[in-house]
């Protein structure tokens, strides 16, 4: 059943609605808590059979309830278990109170916990209900646990990690393993939450998948399931023009490499034809480096207008190494009504003139994809970037709505968002992908997909995924060139 939920991301608020729907449908909530706690105890025994003592840290809500169930199960199994609580156990309510009453172990205050060699901590302080920064007492405990290098298994989320945003609220545990329930939450994928989770296990506690998917929104993990149907519709046997013609715009003679990387990536990613568009002064240097990619001299908007009479040139990449300024803006506005990947200098050129671009994107009938990293995002969308209440996903969604473009908000946790609010979070990129030229390659792959006729959101999401796979295949010593050689076929 979890297969159906494998790619779904559920926010804590949606999870609360799912819990309620489960209860309304007659499912006993204490049974769910018991399944959750049992799954945690099973993980603890499986992962740390050599533990001398399991130390269960229980919080004031249902996350703590899961902890009491796990503690009871571990003690039943004959393990040495100690329980420490944040807040008074008498103040617990509902299922958590019931789980605590059923637990035969004595409970000591959290602050009394002194880590010992051989301990394994089960962190059940806070999960999805974390609503503000961690309280003072938790800080001390977390510090001692990390100083003592005590392995941590987190229940649902490492305490301190916000399930909606992946942000750390004050401080957090860094877990070796996290057991979450039914479906992943944004905080498991977004940074820095992702690295605080350690290995992530999703356990089915028995809520019917239908109840979960009906209440989950449009948020997915970026896997071929999110766009595969559009990819498989591309027939590799078609005539080369039917696989599209991608134009990549080169900068001046001293900055041509980035555009050539985009062009080479576009060709490797399946564009039928790729033309590098070059100003006169860079023709010679570009020509000396190109083989399969074609070259065309375009000096100004007039030249560009002439070339655009050829309707077969259907997608463009503008930005890598292009230079910031009026020429970039003029060219981009002319290309908006086809399909355009606006990257790097292309976006920065609109820092003080974004309204015109967004207006064109809204009304031209074309497809626009923008690929900002954090700095570029802040330049183009300063008010969204500065809104501390928004998660990275929500920022990308707000930017997409405002700009009428598909936004690829890059980073180790790249988010792709459409103006409709649909979004995916990417999870297959190795850290080594943060290498010079990597962004140019990504822009080229998006361009290739647009040239092949994919809708903008799918084109961008599929490109981010292929880029991540290529990074994994290219391995740690990768360069932008080896990244291109390792772009996998579309699945
Ligand atoms: N999703 C599900 O279907 C199930 C969820 N379960 C567990 O329930 C958890 C969610 O339970 P809750 O909603 O009770 O939330 P939590 O147990 O995460 O925490 C909520 C409690 O902590 C308080 N609180 C929040 N932030 C605080 C802070 N910074 N300092 C001090 N107090 C703070 C709240 O007022 C509330 O009393 C999940 O993480 C999961 O572990 C399980 O029991 C099984 C079923
Ligand atoms: K926790």
TrEMBL record:
TM segment ranges: none
Binding residues for (6S)-NADPHX: 62-66, 127-133, 156, 258, 321, 373, 440
Domain YjeF C-terminal stretches: 223-491
UniProt keyword list: ATP-binding, Isomerase, Lyase, Metal-binding, Multifunctional enzyme, NAD, NADP, Nucleotide-binding, Potassium
Co-factor requirement: K(+); Mg(2+)
Function per UniProt: Catalyzes the dehydration of the S-form of NAD(P)HX at the expense of ADP, which is converted to AMP. Together with NAD(P)HX epimerase, which catalyzes the epimerization of the S- and R-forms, the enzyme allows the repair of both epimers of NAD(P)HX, a damaged form of NAD(P)H that is a result of enzymatic or heat-dependent hydration. Bifunctional enzyme that catalyzes the epimerization of the S- and R-forms of NAD(P)HX and the dehydration of the S-form of NAD(P)HX at the expense of ADP, which is converted to AMP. This allows the repair of both epimers of NAD(P)HX, a damaged form of NAD(P)H that is a result of enzymatic or heat-dependent hydration.
Protein name: Bifunctional NAD(P)H-hydrate repair enzyme
Gene from which the chain derives: nnrD
EC number: 4.2.1.136, 5.1.99.6
Pfam families named in the record: Carb_kinase, YjeF_N
YjeF N-terminal domain residues: 15-213
PROSITE patterns associated with the record: YJEF_C_2, YJEF_C_3, YJEF_N
InterPro entries xref list: Carbohydrate_kinase_pred_CS (IPR017953), CARKD (IPR000631), Nnr (IPR030677), Ribokinase-like (IPR029056), YjeF_N_dom (IPR004443), YjeF_N_dom_sf (IPR036652)
Annotated binding of K(+), by residue: 63, 123, 159
Family of the protein in this entry: Belongs to the NnrE/AIBP family.
Reaction equation(s) it catalyzes: (6R)-NADHX = (6S)-NADHX; (6S)-NADHX + ADP = AMP + phosphate + NADH + H(+); (6S)-NADPHX + ADP = AMP + phosphate + NADPH + H(+); (6R)-NADPHX = (6S)-NADPHX
């Amino acid at each position: 059943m979890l297969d159906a939920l494998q790619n779904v991301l559920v926010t804590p608020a949606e999870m609360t609605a799912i819990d309620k729907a489960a209860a309304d449908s007659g499912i006993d909530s204490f049974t769910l808590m018991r399944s959750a706690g049992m799954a945690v105890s099973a993980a603890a025994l499986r992962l740390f059979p050599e533990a001398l003592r399991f130390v269960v840290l229980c919080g004031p809500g249902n996350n703590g309830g899961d902890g009491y169930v796990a503690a009871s199960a571990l003690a039943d199994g004959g393990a040495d278990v100690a329980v420490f609580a944040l807040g008074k156990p008498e103040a617990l309510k509902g299922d958590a109170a019931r789980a605590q009453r059923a637990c035969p172990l004595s409970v000591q205050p959290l602050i009394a916990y002194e880590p010992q060699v051989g301990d394994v901590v089960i962190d059940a302080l806070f999960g999805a209900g974390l609503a503000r920064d961690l309280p003072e007492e938790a800080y001390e405990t977390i510090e001692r646990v990390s100083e003592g290098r005590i392995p941590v298994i987190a229940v649902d989320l490492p305490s301190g990690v916000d399930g909606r945003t992946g942000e750390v609220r004050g401080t957090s545990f860094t877990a070796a393993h996290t057991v979450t329930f039914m479906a992943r939450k944004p905080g498991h994928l977004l940074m820095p939450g992702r690295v605080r989770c350690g290995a992530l296990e999703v356990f089915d506690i028995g809520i019917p998948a239908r109840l979960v998917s009906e209440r989950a929104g449009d948020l997915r993990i970026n896997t071929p399931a999110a766009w595969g149907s559009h990819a498989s519709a591309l027939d590799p046997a078609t005539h080369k023009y039917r696989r599209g013609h991608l134009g990549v715009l080169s900068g001046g003679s001293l900055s041509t490499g980035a555009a050539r990387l985009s062009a080479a990536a576009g060709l490797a990613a399946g564009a039928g034809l790729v033309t590098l568009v070059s100003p006169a002064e860079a023709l010679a240097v570009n020509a000396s480096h190109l083989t399969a990619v074609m070259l065309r001299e375009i000096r100004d908007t007039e030249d560009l207008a002439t070339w655009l009479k050829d309707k077969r040139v259907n997608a463009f990449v503008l930005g890598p190494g292009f230079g910031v300024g009026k020429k970039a803006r003029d060219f981009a506005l002319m290309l908006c009504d086809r399909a355009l990947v606006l990257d790097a200098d292309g976006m920065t050129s609109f820092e003080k003139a974004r309204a015109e671009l967004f207006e064109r994107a809204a009304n031209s009938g074309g497809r626009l994809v923008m690929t900002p990293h954090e700095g570029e995002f802040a330049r183009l969308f300063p008010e969204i970037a500065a809104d501390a209440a928004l998660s990275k996903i929500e920022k990308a969604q707000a930017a997409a709505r405002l700009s009428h473009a598909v936004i690829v908000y890059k980073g180790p946790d790249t988010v792709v968002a459409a103006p409709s609010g649909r979004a995916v979070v990417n999870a297959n990129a190795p850290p080594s992908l943060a290498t010079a030229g990597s962004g140019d390659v990504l822009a080229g792959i998006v361009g290739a997909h647009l040239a092949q006729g994919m809708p903008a959101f799918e084109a961008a999401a599929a490109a981010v995924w292929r880029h991540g796979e290529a990074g994994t295949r290219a391995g740690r010593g990768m360069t932008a060139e080896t990244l291109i050689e390792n772009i996998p076929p579309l699945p």
